[in-house]
From TrEMBL, chains A, B:
Signal sequence coordinates: none
Glycoside hydrolase family 65 N-terminal domain mapped to chain residues: 13-265
Species, as recorded: Pedobacter psychrophilus
Residue ranges crossing the lipid bilayer per the database entry: none
Glycoside hydrolase family 65 C-terminal domain residues: 697-757
InterPro entries named among the record's database cross-references: 6-hairpin_glycosidase_sf, 6hp_glycosidase-like_sf, Gal_mutarotase_sf_dom, GH65_N, Glyco_hydro_65_C, Glyco_hydro_65_M, Glyco_hydro_65_N, Malt_Pase/Glycosyl_Hdrlase
GO biological process annotation, one example: carbohydrate metabolic process
Domain of life: Bacteria
Active site: 488
Record domain Glycoside hydrolase family 65 central catalytic: where: 322-688
Protein name: Maltose phosphorylase
Residues engaged in binding substrate: 357-358, 600-601
SUPFAM superfamilies associated with the record: Galactose mutarotase-like, Six-hairpin glycosidases
Length: 772, 772
């Protein structure tokens, strides 16, 4: 754990330059706009430790799978979002001496991520080996208004000399992925073009043949006034640049403005790509730096208007939750239903930028509440569009009749992962995808989603479950063998309670969904049934499984059993595990982890969280007490579910304690892995801890419920949500629940189980938390 | 399956040259002498498909592990016997035209592996593109008398011309392994030396720094008379050669004799290696080709004297069993307790030449009966010498107090394998190593083995089992979780019956062994107990586990259960599995295999085979009938155990049928994989099918038992065994059991349960098979 980020409500601030922290800061200060993103690498040359990262959403490379021992069914490749052309590069020479923070004496270094306005700023004074001293101020952002555009304003002021400053602004496409399986480069050159102030470089990905045109327009300013310049063009293999020299005088600020663009063949015709890039560059340069920055500020203001959380009395918490919200919106904006949310977003290479079940289980609830409905709908449509691939994937594993198994890890719908115990067996992901459909409709009321998209996906998923269970003569029940649950510290287990319960829920929900569509859109229903070659017998097959499924439980303890035989394990509690042996995933061999009772992340409890209405509080408490005591939370996705359940059980201290485990996970580099990138999807979990945990927000029967409490350490917290057209601002302090809507419509809300009527806004005195 | 090998009692014969079969024949016609070995590559240049292979026992390279997803505890490298310098190379030019069977017209091609005398012969006529025709006769062997020596006699007769023949005899060390994980070469150059008729090349392996000096001495003969020659030395990177030209006349036979040596730093001081090689070359060249070949013939005759099996009435079976015996003795001679038996011997790269539990479970019984006692003793001592590494290996996985886990795959005692479900969980191998000690003592009566070696190994193994089980409150028994049994089509299962039974057997046997040593050698026992820091409490801990171990079984069916929950699987029989879906390991995805009831190889039945005396015939039959029907035998190690049990159950047809599945596995290329190398360890299984199956040989209470039957298709079979000093030749025909010993000592033997006395030899009329 580290603690070098300065606490501030709206800004992430680093003061002083410590090269050892640089890769961590490169992750933390990352920028993105849903379409592209980058690590906070320096514009100027840096010979110290750095992980260069520029990423373009949806542009991926199928890297040949590396495997020790091949198993039938393994995918041939792992699709990964690849490191793209570096467009921020500005080599700086002062009197022929290269500016490099690794070789300069750096003072007054400050790095600021301004989350309110959406930009990154870096200020420092550098004394070069020659003794020449300069002050640098660099501002950078990825526009969320023009999401193909990135902007830099890089200013240098000579502090103790008059002399020549030389900028080489460049775009470097000769990059590679650190995680390349076979140390290959993934880009081929297509074309380039350089004028006095514009540069274009088009590259094509190998195999996938995506084309990306990266461009830049540069301006030179002296004391904020534009000046003419003659640049020298520099062309190398997959590299374009322009060199400009200027003679500066002491205390004169020389600025290079670089307005860049990244356009891809996903969104433009290849033949038209260069021309289109020229148009975008022309438009953006016409707006100019100040206008672009103003628009960025306004756009972020409107995002915050819909999504901000204000925490009074805890500045560290305030900073952290805004950081999480900010990074989530930098990663995914919901404009494009071909894109999704990689566990590291645009902040690193790990996990290949691919889609996991994190999206459905953790991110969908966040976007449902904080963004327009279309945003989460697009996350759902992403899977709908990949249904054919999910059916193919299931076929490869021996399923038929349109059974769909969505992949564990994917870019384009094809499975990328290759550990048999995950790839083939961690099939509960299929259920999370169905659950997200339910969650979306529950929150938005948009039942029509079923007609056009949802039902087809649900039928594919239920067909899979139907074939994946088998009748056990021994149990006289249906069983599901050979699975891995969310707790990946168990592999190839039988009858994972969570997976079993999720599977039958999927079938029940599919039957219900079919009835809804049949009723609302009979002819559309008929067409779908025909298209899918659906046989009514399938409903009865599902019903029979629903009625006769086996769910492991222990009657004595009154708990659901994580899987068959779980109680045969030596039952040790996490509190009795020596600190020196944790985290067990670093200290223990894999087999020891597997045969221990220790749980990586919510498993039975994930099921109880999903289906809490099916269980009484006493049951929830027994299971929570049993499993929480055995859970090591070695996934960043674990604590939030525990926090929400603890809050539900009125255990406020525990709820807060779990919330703390991920709230500042990256800002404080808890797990010593922030340098690899940020834990983007787990950030949504922190949001859930506050809104679903502390505020106890639920949607039941089309109505909002709250069951709030105020963490002891806070004075108040408030958050904004979108709910069925209303924009609500909800504030909870020690005594009251306050609500303010964006209009004066009637509102009916349940607080601690009591119905309350509001018109626009209102305030309710809080008594005790409801225990329902 | 193929059928191109010509049936012959003592020879393996291929007639006609088919390049498509070449890699298969290279495996089948492999040569070895326990110290070195090689595939049957051609001496002359060959531009067609070939897998070059020259191997030197015990000289290995730690190739960096390749893995998709790293798990804690995985080994860093896979030690593999590496492809060594090619010493057979003889480039042949006829009138400046290179002889290459891929570009010549080849007629009268014949390849013969003479198993009786232990050499490989190749005869062919080649018409070169120029029209020049030659006859070639090449004889080659690896001496089992001087096991550092290999010999070639390569003769050419011009058939239709007078002209120049040029030989370049060479040693080429610039070789690599096809299975290199990172496409690296493993050898560094040390030194070389070339004289007119001698050439020396010393290489050093990277990392492990073994040095190997490969040398050759050449002679030139015309019509079998030695002639003088002047050779031209050829030196390249890791390559030495000598070029000799001679003008031959039509029908004159020109022969190049090449006597080669391979000496390693395992057996000689590095500083002395070259000198020592010169001595060996001098000795061998003094003997000369004919003497060396004669000695080879005599040495093989004496091996056959101890081990031959004669089958009358089935030439294919006769050829096959001799082939299996021959290849086993080519692979392992038992002279060196640092060597072992790789599943492919010296015939290919697959499995890295490393040691598996195949040695203990399948090869030890073969060598016990067919070779001097020291041979199998050395196989046991191999493990004893690696005990420290086994203890380290267990420590890495979290065990302590001297617990030993022998590796799944190893060269020097360190684990090489890296699939968690095998490496960490297929721990029954530990039991097979203990069982081999028992088996050795049961067969030889050499209880003293326990004093010096056995008990220490047994204590390490029992300490492992003690820590590997845990008390299940739920079962009120000890359980063993997270294992993989011999049936690798199940992973990470709980309470594998075979492993559980083997574990408690190990503890029982260790207690008994300790009592024996304490009684026979009290002071040695005391020293050992002190050295191992052994506490008497450990005996009672073991006893408690022995008394309270859980063994899964199904009372209704009267069978032992392969593992917990096995009966929850869909119970389909192999006979009902469509042919198009077999072998399932090629047709099904891994998860489907795992959740099916299908069994790769004997598992419960392996346990029943090991401990048959503990079960009555009805129990054996119930288990056999149940499991055999579910076994797909997709391991070459599976059929022999089934054959032996079927024989025991008097099901002669089935016993024969299982025997057939591996008898000609490689000769007929059943699985289309002979080109990768031969299934050396499974060859011992075929021997077991005949001797333990058809002849029903057992050792009980220090006495030999037979329970023979004659397969319907045979007229008789006879085999030779060593048993406690006696050399016995046993013959079984349709009516009688005949025995002939090498001396006239009294012999007491049980046949069909009846005691019989012999003096030297005897004959017993056979009635019905005993069912006991």
């Amino acid at each position: 754990m580290k603690d070098y980020i300065i606490k501030d409500e709206w800004n992430i601030i680093e003061e002083g330059f410590d090269p050892h922290l640089n890769k961590i800061s490169e992750s933390i200060f990352s920028l993105g706009n849903g379409r592209m993103g980058q690590r906070a690498n320096f514009e100027e040359t840096y010979s110290g430790e750095t992980l260069s990262g520029n990423y373009i959403a949806g542009v991926y490379y199928p890297d040949k799978t590396r495997v020790g021992w091949w198993k039938n069914g393994y995918p041939e490749y792992f699709a990964k979002v690849l490191n793209a052309a570096n467009w921020i590069g500005i080599e700086v020479k002062i009197e022929d001496e290269i500016l490099d923070l690794a070789t300069s004496k750096v003072t007054d270094f400050k790095r600021i991520l301004n989350m309110q306005e959406g930009y990154l700023e870096r200020i420092f004074t550098a004394e070069l080996p020659s003794g020449n001293k300069i002050k640098v101020n660099a501002i950078r952002f990825c526009s969320i208004v023009d999401d193909e555009v990135g902007v830099i304003n890089y200013s240098i002021t000579p502090l103790n000399f008059d002399g020549k400053i030389e900028f080489t602004s460049y775009i470097d496409g000769d990059v590679k992925n650190q995680d390349s399986n076979y140390d290959e480069k993934f880009w081929d050159f297509v074309n380039n073009e350089i004028t006095n102030n514009e540069a274009y470089l088009t590259l094509r990905t190998k195999k996938t043949e995506f084309e990306v045109c990266t461009a830049s327009f540069i301006q030179l300013l002296a004391d904020e006034k534009a000046i003419d310049f003659n640049s020298e063009a520099i062309r190398k293999e997959k590299f374009v640049g322009q060199k400009i020299g200027i003679n500066a005088v002491q205390n004169q600020e020389i600025s290079l403005i670089k307005i860049a663009a990244n356009l891809t063949s996903q969104n433009h015709q290849k033949s038209d790509l260069l021309n289109h890039t020229k148009i975008i560059i022309a438009k953006a340069s016409t707006k100019g730096f100040h206008q672009l920055k103003l628009e960025q500020k306004q756009a972020w203001a409107s995002k915050w208007q819909e999504s901000d959380i204000i925490i009074e009395g805890d500045i560290a918490a305030q900073q952290a939750i805004r950081f999480n919200i900010f990074q989530l919106f930098q990663t995914y904006t919901g404009k494009d239903d071909r894109l999704n949310i990689g566990p590291k977003g645009f902040t690193g290479e790990k996990y290949g930028g691919s889609t996991y079940w994190d999206t459905e289980a953790y991110c969908v609830p966040f976007y449902l509440a904080t963004a327009p409905q279309q945003v989460s709908k697009n996350l759902l449509i992403y899977r709908y569009k990949q249904l054919d691939k999910a059916i193919e994937n299931a076929q490869k594993l021996g399923f038929d009749n349109g059974a769909a198994l969505f992949p564990m890890v994917t870019m384009n719908g094809e499975e990328c992962h290759n550990e048999w115990e995950i790839t083939f067996e961690e099939i509960h992901r299929n259920g999370a995808i169905a659950y997200a459909i339910h969650n979306y409709i529950r929150y938005t009321g948009d039942e029509n989603y079923l007609n056009d998209y949802g039902l087809e996906v649900l039928i594919g998923i239920s067909r899979f479950w139907k074939q994946r269970v088998n009748w056990s003569k021994a149990q006289n029940k249906f069983v599901m063998l050979g699975v891995t649950g969310p707790n990946e510290y168990e592999n190839n287990i039988n009858n994972n309670w969570y997976t079993n319960i999720l599977a039958t829920w999927c079938m029940k929900y599919t039957i219900k969904a079919a009835q809804i569509v049949e009723k609302n859109r009979p002819s559309q229903y008929k067409n779908l049934i025909e298209k899918l070659n659906f046989n009514k017998q399938e409903f009865s097959d599902w019903a029979s499984i629903i009625d006769n499924m086996y769910y492991p439980e222990d009657a004595d303890k009154g708990i659901f059993l994580q899987q068959d035989g779980y109680l045969d394990k030596e039952q040790i509690l996490v509190k009795d595990l020596p600190k020196s042996e944790r985290p067990i995933n670093q200290k223990w061999s894999w087999d020891r982890i597997l045969r221990s009772c220790f749980i990586k992340q919510a498993d039975v409890l994930q099921g109880i969280y999903f289906f809490e209405e099916d269980y009484d509080l006493a049951t929830i408490k027994r299971n929570f007490d049993f499993y929480e005591a055995r859970t090591v939370h070695e996934s960043s996705l674990s604590p939030c579910v525990h926090s929400i359940l603890a809050a539900k059980l009125n255990d406020e201290a525990k709820a807060y304690q779990f919330y703390l485990r991920t709230a500042r996970l990256d800002l404080d580099d808890y797990n010593n892995d922030t340098e690899d990138g940020l834990h983007i999807t787990s950030m949504a979990g922190t949001w859930m801890s506050i809104v679903e945990g502390f505020a106890g927000m639920r949607v039941r029967d089309n109505q909002l419920h709250f069951n709030p409490f105020l963490p002891k350490h806070w004075q108040s917290f408030s958050f904004k949500i979108n709910f069925r057209g209303a924009n609500l601002n909800i504030k909870i302090d020690g005594k009251s629940f306050q609500i303010a809507a964006n209009d004066d419509k009637d509102l009916e809300i349940f607080i601690h189980g009591q119905k309350h009527q509001f018109k626009g806004s209102g305030i309710i005195e809080l008594q005790n938390k409801e225990l329902v």
